[in-house]
Design brief:
about 170 residues; six-stranded parallel β-sheet; 16 strands; globular; disordered C terminus
């Protein structure tokens, strides 16, 4: 709830469920050096008025989401959102998602996407994940500032309509 620089946020082996807002929301000129979410079960996060992993006025240098299961969440919002707050804070965002399962996350046929990352210089690594029942109209990403060459290796996709990059007009 305050501006500033913070060393880390670490959440391990937790069950987090039944929230109206998203998982986290950085709405101050704050930078967290590293956010680690490991071995968690995250469910029924509605994301009313915000996105699942949401950074608007601040940022982070590393977001590591590993060995976690996320289901029935962000049905009408973006899964990862990071606005370009580079005029307010200095960060070099690196998002790594590895060995996670996403089921019915972003599945509401909404006009959103998996990654809505606009902070300049962001990098995305999305590896060894399972994604099922995803149907956001804008797919994986559609912003020119989202990492144009993300690392996407060894993922399994099932019933994932629109999980491709699209521009704002909806064209491939």
């Amino acid at each position: 709830t305050a501006d500033g620089d913070f060393t880390y946020l670490k959440i391990e082996n937790c069950e987090i469920k039944n929230y109206t807002k998203g998982f986290f929301y950085i709405n101050k000129a704050a930078v967290i050096d590293a956010i680690t979410i490991d071995g968690c079960i995250i469910s029924n996060i509605e994301c009313s008025g915000g996105d699942l992993f949401d950074s608007r006025a601040g940022g982070y240098n590393a977001l590591n989401l590993t060995n976690s299961t996320i289901y029935n969440s962000a049905k009408s919002r973006d899964v990862f959102r990071m606005d370009d707050a580079s005029k307010n804070v200095s960060a070099a965002p690196n998002i790594k998602v590895d060995h996670c399962t996403f089921s019915q996350v972003g599945s509401g046929n909404a006009n959103y996407r998996f990654f809505y990352t606009r902070f300049v210089g962001n990098t995305i690594t999305f590896t060894n994940n399972i994604v099922t029942d995803f149907n956001n109209k804008r797919g994986f990403a559609n912003q020119k500032n989202t990492d144009q060459n993300p690392t996407l290796d060894n993922n399994i996709y099932f019933n994932t309509k629109n999980l491709i990059s699209k521009d704002d007009t909806g064209d491939d």
